[in-house]
Amino acid sequence: MSEMLSMLQGAIIGQSPIVYVYSPEEERIVRAIKSIAEPLNLPVTTWSCVTGLDGYGNETQDPVVAIKTFIKDNIQGMIVLKDLAPFLDDFKVVRAIREAYNDGRKNKNRTVFLVCADNIVPEAIKKEIHFLEIPTPDENEIVKIIDEAKQNPELNIPDDAVREVTLALKGLTENEIDYVLHRACKNEGADKDQILDEIFAEKKNVVKKSGFLEFSPPRWKIENLGGLDNLKQWLIKRQDMFTREALEAGVPVPKGLLMMGVSGCGKSLAAKTISSLWNIPMFRLDMNLVFSGMYGTPEEAFHRALKTIESVAPAVLWIDEIEDALGLDESGQRIASHIFSTFLTWMQEKPPLIFIAATANKIQALPAEVLRKGRFDEVFFCDLPSKEEREDIIKIHLRRNNANLEDFDFKMLQIMTEGWNGAEIEQAIIAARTEAFYENRPFAQRDLEAVIGRIVPLSDTMENQIKAIRSWAFTRATPASKYGKSAAKR
Length: 490
Fold this sequence. Notes:
The chain contains 23 helices and 13 strands. It is an alpha/beta fold and 490 residues long.
């Protein structure tokens, strides 16, 4: 039995006179109610403001008239009132629902369902209404949808893709699943990866509607991340653990990762590589929009953001600069304490197939509640790259800029970039390539040396701050680099 049917049956068994069903899937809800009513030989009567009450015509389009009608005529069974939420700001409608509740307590053979896509329950009737928030189709329901789709000769769903496709479709509504299967599987040559790409694109659209979640496309490969070997190995070892099979086998599924350290040392880039490495979508939570008030109170918007990310699991939730995102000041004081406490609770109780990738710059602003074991699987410190790592980073960006590696002296570049972070190296190479292009000649060593000579690295301008960060992280975090501990002492 699906979770939706269990919830609806529980409301009926509990003899709740009025049940508020919060879900955008009206058709699916009505079909489920009818499936429950049929073996009980109970009729199902529906109402909408367009058609009125079944069998009573247009005169019952007014919700108050409709409610008075089924009370007066003692209609039995299941009564489904569609999209009543917009009418709940009318005190007459609220009063009519209260009347239906009082009458329903005496009439045990009637259950009234308010099926609404909006969560609007007036304070006056909150105690009378039994509230249900219906989840999107579970895996068993999705398998049935896929099985039905496979009966369509126009659709091509490879048998070896069913398991992963089922998991990827979680979080989409029944209609969204139907659309994406028809769009992805009409092509006879469609393989598993193409179908998954279409599903992720659909999830991107779902999340985009929320406004404060941004889809981060899986463009960044882990081999294009220079240095940070300990961090990369950690991610690679857990590549096959973030799956439904691992969950069912009882293997501990990774929960989250916190990357802190010096600005420009690859924390955000490392977070972006998780999506392509693990082949799951990543969504960045824009806390500026949450706090903006554009989407209601910050607490309400943050709650909706967490619910949205739950609905599209499996997924990576990327929170950049978590100390600012959670409303913490320089000393770690909680400016937005409600959001901070809500997030900590959610981290403990979230669904297993949501991975949190968080980054932090002002690590001294992070309170112990965030850093303690159990919140994140690991806390990595990203330090300034060592000479070997700087060479890796230089080679990556030279290849990206179509340079001939044989034309460069990497030993010299290692020395010249001492104390530089990855972002500074990238910008130096881009600037050198730009100057060579402007002068219409090949990009060479002398261009890069000229640019390097003009740049003052962050390690010089913010020397005391970087020393403080290293000192703080030395005993509190795992080095992201295999050269980390010795470098941290400098």
